[in-house]
Design brief:
It contains 7 helices and 6 strands; from the N terminus they run E-H-H-E-H-E-H-E-H-H-E-E-H. By secondary structure, the protein is an alpha/beta fold. The protein folds into 2 domains: 143 residues, TIM Barrel; 33 residues, no CATH class. It has a 6-stranded parallel sheet. Helix 4 links the parallel strand 3 and strand 4. It is globular, with a radius of gyration of 21 Å.
């Protein structure tokens, strides 16, 4: 779940997450909290201890959109992230720009030395998917599927859908098929 640092730092947030997990029978290891890049993590002196408290309970903490907004190098030292999600902007000019490749490779080497899992966002070409030892997400790997027929568990017959479309006075459901 994406959470702004100011929300994560609120008193009782960690207990609330634990209560939700307990209420739904989820182990803490099923949860990953992504601290968003919208706020400066370093403005919250309690953040390293809070992150460690979550990690001790088995909750993985990720830095979201590394290299944009406030998701920067300064937070990687004092905060023990389990995952760093590299923003698509850092990948955008690779591999066609040698300098961009050097920056990207250097960031990957740093994150490997910190022993964090890495997710590369915005992978849209085979060349961008070449980086070893990282997880990747982006349109190269899977395109979004729209339309009710693409929603897991949705079972609407064609006849019923046609009837529903007529019943809405010309308003039709979008179908991306």
């Amino acid at each position: 779940m994406n959470v702004p640092p100011s929300i994560a730092a609120m008193p009782g947030f960690a207990d609330s997450v634990q209560a939700v997990c307990d209420a739904h029978g989820l182990g803490a290891d099923c949860i990953e909290i992504e601290l968003s890049e919208s706020e400066d993590l370093m403005r919250f002196p309690s953040m390293p201890a809070l992150v460690q408290r979550f990690r001790d309970k088995g909750v993985n903490i990720a830095m979201d959109d590394f290299s944009t907004g406030y998701a920067c190098l300064a937070a990687l030292g004092p905060i023990d992230f389990g995952t760093v999600k590299i923003a698509k902007e850092l990948l955008a000019d690779t591999p066609r720009c040698p300098s961009a490749c050097m920056v990207f490779s250097s960031v990957l080497a740093l994150l490997e030395r910190l022993q964090v899992s890495v997710v590369v966002e915005g992978v849209e070409t085979p060349a961008q998917a070449q980086w070893p030892n990282v997880l990747a997400q982006g349109f190269f790997l899977a395109r979004r599927a729209f339309g009710i027929d693409k929603v897991p568990g949705a079972r609407i017959s064609k006849a019923r859908r046609a009837s529903a479309n007529r019943a809405h006075h010309g308003i039709r459901l979008a179908n991306a098929a």
